Amino acid sequence: MKAKRQAKILELIQKKDVETQEELSAYLEQEGFQVTQATVSRDIRELKLTKVSLSSGRQKYAVITDTDSDSGMLGKYARVLREGFLSIDVAENIVVIKTVSGMASAVCAAVDAIKPQELVGSIAGDDTIICVIRTREDAERFVLRIRKMIERG
């Protein structure tokens, strides 16, 4: 449950300008997670989220991206990927990832967050992710990268 919740947090802060813990709690509850302020605070700390300034002068939560924290965040994304992953398949330059029901969006956010250079874009349904890759060869490299992340668990 913790991994799913934290994956949802990463997805939410990528898609929305989440400014407060209360706002994050409300979004999580809309997604079906029952959370306390202490849980949200702990998740923010564990995910190493920070506040960044927007052009409007307001602030929002974001993932710390300095090199010291990259390996830790990659581990978190890999964990989300491992927990939701069922299978992966290639059709020319399209990669299809099957996930546990309801986890495609979180796994897709994790895949996007690792910023694979081969990836042009991705879209998630309930249990399926479609990844558009630049070339057939890049698709094979992408699949190997995903498999390695899953196996490192």
Outline the structure in words.
The protein is of the alpha+beta class and 153 residues long. Helices cover 51% and strands 23% of the residues. It contains six helices and six strands. It has helices spanning 2-15, 21-30, 37-46, 67-84, 104-113, 136-151; strands spanning 49-53, 59-63, 85-91, 94-99, 119-124, 128-133. The strands form two sheets. The chain has a four-stranded antiparallel sheet. It has a two-stranded antiparallel sheet with strand order 1-2. Residues 66-70 have low confidence and may be disordered.
Mean pLDDT: 87
- Multimeric status of the protein: single chain
Terminus-to-terminus distance: 17 Å
Helical residue percent band? 40-55%
Q: DSSP strand (E) fraction?
A: 15-25%
Shape: globular
User: How are helices and strands ordered from N to C?
Assistant: HHHEEHEEHEEH
Low-confidence stretches: 66-70
What structural class do helix, strand and pairing data support? alpha+beta
What is the C-alpha radius of gyration, as a whole number of Å?
16 Å
Count all strands and give the number.
6
Strand order of the largest sheet: 3-4-6-5
Q: What is the makeup of the main sheet? A: 4 strands, antiparallel
Q: Please, how many helices?
A: 6
Question: What is the strand and helix layout of this fold?
Answer:
Layout: H1 2-15, H2 21-30, H3 37-46, E1 49-53, E2 59-63, H4 67-84, E3 85-91, E4 94-99, H5 104-113, E5 119-124, E6 128-133, H6 136-151
